Description:
Elements (H helix, E strand, L loop, with lengths): L4 E6 L11 H16 L3 E4 L13 H11 L4 E4 L2 E2 L5 H14 L4 E6 L6 H7 L7 H13 L23 E5 L5 H7 L2 E5 L10 H9 L11 E9 L3 H20 L9 H9 L3 H11 L3 E3 L1 H15 L3 E5 L5 H15 L5
Helix pairs in contact: 1-2, 1-12, 3-5, 6-7, 8-10, 11-12
Amino acid sequence: MSNLVLSVLDQSPIHDGKEDKEGLFDTIELAKICDNLGYHRYWLAEHHNTPGYASSNPEVMINIVASVTNNIRVGSGGVMLNHYNSFKVAETFNTLEALYENRIDVGIGRASGANYITASALHNSVNSDYSEKASDLIGYLNQNLPLNHNYNDITLTPQGVNAPPVYLLGSSSGSCRLAGELGSGFVLALFIGTHERSSKIIQEYRKSFKPSNVLKKEKAIIAIACIVASSKEEARYIASTHTYWKLQAFTRPNRDKLLSPKELEYIIANLNERDRLYYEETMNTMILGTAKECKKEIETLADFYDVDEVMIVNVTYSFKDRINSYKLLAEEFNLKNN
């Protein structure tokens, strides 16, 4: 697949044992680099009270990233809509689209991005139905709420702004049909969890798709974890940081911040059998290796899911390793000339 589009999903990891806030500044720096490398989109994630990750507010980061880049589309990956009021989210992204015309994407998800207590602190109890919230959000942005909707007469400020495209995020089949019925894009997050995801998920999205004001035809993307290095062994070594973090996230009530591969050597060598199995299972969900090896695997996955765009998630302890990974991949795919 020679014309495969590559994009970036940034979870704003806190690198090199720095202060937490430095993760935000590393995000800004990486966005400028990826813009120059030829990546298509740069999406910012939302995590609350989460050791290792710096960004809890993708909307603020979108504004900063868009202001320091020139060509790359910028969006949320995503806003966890269950926590918020749809009209307020629509106002925010309408404003961003007014400021950065034709460069803004609205990615939304139904996960909490937080532990139970933090989610309770965030939760908006006015309307907790995700399907209805997503439908309302798209209706507000497109100014086409149903005539019998309670807020049909409300308009967004400023007026006269084209609606940015909305994408529903999912790590399984849960949101694919809804995304199609709402006429939105759909992103299948393969980097979350270790369970199998059938290609039928994308097929179901396409089958249910109804054209909308913004998207006349379906748009499906897959998001994967990938680290590129000089060898597969080095990539696996670098990936130990993210892999162990995931092990903690899914098997322990508490987790550490991102640990360096060197710090993890002893910890990983002494994992119990259950944790070792989960660690290896998690590591095997990532695409790791040289640029040539990773390109081949990415293209194989894109063919399997029948998509023309792949979003790359890359979490490392060292910021230099992360920059290097995105650079090597961009060069191998010849993004600047595509």
